[in-house]
Design brief:
This protein is an alpha/beta fold and 348 residues long. It has two domains: 152 residues, Rossmann fold (3-Layer(aba) Sandwich), CATH 3.40.50.720; 185 residues, Dihydrodipicolinate Reductase, domain 2. It is 29% helix and 24% strand. The protein is built from eight helices and 15 strands. The strands form three sheets. Strands 1, 2, 5, 6, 7, 8 and 15 form a seven-stranded parallel beta sheet that branches. Strands 10-9-11-14-13-12 form a six-stranded mixed beta sheet. A two-stranded antiparallel sheet has the order 3-4. A hairpin with a 6-residue loop joins strand 13 and strand 14. Helix 3 crosses helix 5.
Length: 348
Amino acid sequence: MGYRVAVVGATGNVGREMLAILDEVKFPVAEMHAVASRRSKGVEVAFGDGTVRCEDLDQFDFSKVDVVLMSAGGTVSRAWSEKIGTAGPIVIDNSSAFRMDPDVPLVVPEVNPEAIRDARKKNIIANPNCSTIQLVTALKPLHDAAGIRRAVVSTYQSVSGAGKDGMDELWNQTKAVYGLGDTTPKKFPKQIAFNVIPFIGAFRDDGYTDEEAKMWNETHKMLDPSIRLTVTCVRVPVFVGHSEAVTLEFDRPISPEEARAVLREAPGVLVVDKQEADGYATPVEAAGEFAVYVSRIRKDHTVEHGLSLWVVSDNLRKGAALNAVQIAQLLDEQGVIQPTSGYRTLTV
């Protein structure tokens, strides 16, 4: 018994991770379909011990699948997700297109699994922003323990968050710096190699960017609209793995020792926090892993009930593909979707 699954955007960074993680967690797949744009038709992508040949999005019959993992960008999602949902399958959409739609649940399984009950309203479930996912995974247990009143967040986001073009630009610029070549930016507004860019997305009228607004809007929708949140999003010359420096103000007292104990029991969280030169997590350790790592938990002496901490996660995995697969697992566990007969049929 298994599910007929389609991954849309199967040739992209996140699409490939979705295929890898579906196999890694042994999600019960009866049929696997890789779907992409017409120019990628016939391209083979890895799934398990074999490969799957990409099918054309424009020609694909979505009524023959149960679950669609969508990672083809907001424009494609806006054009296709509702049509696919009308055809029958549930769409788990990795773009920002439907995140704030009141009829579309925005889900991180460790944070708000109950939201899955609304999945059938439009047959769409939204996957949150990569930086928001790791943030709320760390904040949820602390909010339950002491009530978060205010959060100040600075992100350090890897170039893979901007896709393959972002990764290529960091690689090419790094080589160019050493070889006295051309470092003219193409993907990013300024040079990313050996630099940091305090700008992701587009500016809003209030001076924040839409990437920053996503983080507070999505946190409010999933966790608590009363949490006051201010964010600065920064692109850094790291290939994979987002980091966040987080300072929290609570309603009630909570010590660093209590916070560590709470976080050690929290699903999806791994505490790495020793007051030693290497006693914390970095993107290098997080790359390829499932967990949200929390380190540097300490008292913030500037407020009555405050803590500061460091949060790191693989943005392609927990920040995107893994969370989408976990949503599919949640749909299965809660009986929102039902398996069909058969197992592991590939379209090759």
